[in-house]
Amino acid sequence: HTLHSLVTVLGTWALIQAQPRSCHTLALAWTFSYLLFFRALSLLGLPTPTPFTNAVQLLLTLKLVSLASDVQDLHLAQRKEMASGFSKTPALGLLPEVPSLMETLSYSYCYVGIMTGAPGPCC
Known about the structure:
By secondary structure, this protein is mainly alpha-helical. It has helices at 2-18, 23-39, 51-84, 101-109, 111-116.
């Protein structure tokens, strides 16, 4: 059951790295498509996931879409900065950089955030 959440996290991280400009839309499509597959496992004759695995998958879906949105906001802010021709202080509430794989895994599996709804890395 751990592989389901890991596939979701790694897939979202890959989308963020490959397409930071449109990663929010891609992550939304990816995570909800995988969630649909995950929820249909019993219809496909595969073992039904446990309720805890279901809860983790639902929360990860929301967290990863939020993370992708934060990365897209960072990318848009960087583009505006380049277009204006000068560097200003970073805007509050933005990620300082695109998260690495380790940062994405840490954010995704952080106990405080996964089960209590802590805000994303931008806050």
